[in-house]
Amino acid sequence: MGNSSIMTEYIHRYFVFVQWDKLTPANAQAKAWDPDTGGELTFGGVRLSADGQEPPTYSACNTAATDTMRTKILAAFTHVPFYNIYLAVDGWTWETALDDAGLQVIEGEGVV
Length: 112
What we know:
About 25% of the residues lie in helices and about 25% in strands. The chain is α+β, with helices and mostly antiparallel strands. It contains three helices and five strands, in the order βαββαβαβ. Strand 2 (about 45-50) and strand 3 (about 60-65) form a beta hairpin. It has one domain (about 20-105).
């Protein structure tokens, strides 16, 4: 019988969109949220635009957070105007968040 009582600390799911020209400060902020597992590489791999074509205008991440990370993430959004955040607990999915933001994934080389 497996151990079904093991719970993860990463209980909060977020979909975060950031303006492409703000990748450096966005990744610096992400490193502050998550310094141990490559937070500084959070944004840039997923390229987005309104029509799904180059050039990208936004990047995004789909991330899980601990209670501590959640506090840092939510506090950051009051000071950083170039983010859009969607919380899964509010019913958002990756697809509905993309649709609400008016963005599409740019398919092809370089997509992570």
